[in-house]
TrEMBL record:
Source organism of the structure: Halomarina rubra
Domain of life: Archaea
InterPro entries to which the protein is assigned, alphabetical: DUF7555
Classification of source organism: Archaea, Methanobacteriati, Methanobacteriota, Stenosarchaea group, Halobacteria
Transmembrane intervals: 25-47, 53-71, 122-144
Pfam families xrefs: DUF7555 (PF24432)
Protein name: Preprotein translocase subunit SecE
Amino acid sequence: MADRSATPEEFDGSGADRPRQLVDLVAYSLSVLVVLFVVLGAVSVALGGGLVGVKRGLFVVGMLLFGLAALKLRPTRLDKRDEARLPADRGRETPFQSRVQRVIPSAYRLDHDDRLSDALKLFVASLLVLAVSYVMETVFGIAVS
């Protein structure tokens, strides 16, 4: 299915959707971070790793998400558009995205076709996850021992 996420060419020039797209992007990225932090926190506590385990897990998962998002953001060749291995957007809302939409106030919600691509949101989320891992080590002193 074709990628129906918003592109710069589709904007009417007014930028009316951009603040709402930013809200969607921030909500998605923070949701990914919170879910990862809770899951990694539970696993790390169960294995006796504490916050160091969470920091390590955030770094590893952040790097994996970064790589996946980079692959999804890669443009496909014009003659291979129908054979995209990792489409940027499958054209339908994922269960995770529908849960994120419930968190966003109704005035800021967008239709699926008006949102930024899933690949871009995943890319920003990966940067946020890596940034939190970095801050945990440098600011809060949670170092790998």
